[in-house]
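# nightly structure sweep
# worker-07 picked up a monomer target from the shared queue
# config: single-sequence mode, recycle default, output format = structure tokens
# input follows
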Amino acid sequence: MEALEKRREHVIALFRIVTGLLFACHGAATLFDVLGGPHGAAPDFAAWPGWWAAVVQLVGGTLVLCGLATRPAAILCSGSMAYAYFVEHQPDGLFPIENGGEAAAMFCWSFLLVAAVGPGRWTLGPRLRPRRREGDRPVTGSLPTDTPTSA
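# output follows
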């Protein structure tokens, strides 16, 4: 167990990457008729909810995959799958195995986990932030200590 704990951040990153990739593939398949095409009929441009769900899948999955705005993107992806499950699948039966909603349920809970534990390692976020030069002070939301707070 100690060996797994040492690699915790790596395992979390791998989980995030695979989950984001699979989700983005669903969106790409629906929007661009690639990777086997959409499951069912392709939605018309901007048609609710199918086309918008595919956009969330492609964009949100890509953001999670890359580790950019991971937590907000994962919350959006999780919520979209909760919506898909309860609106599209749950009326056909209580349990996911009955109503065909296994993928929606798994993605919903997987993205909720990513949002809760964070992105792990191997994210692009730090690579895209401008680097501070040595000696630069970090920017904070508070006033410097030598600045009077009242006029």
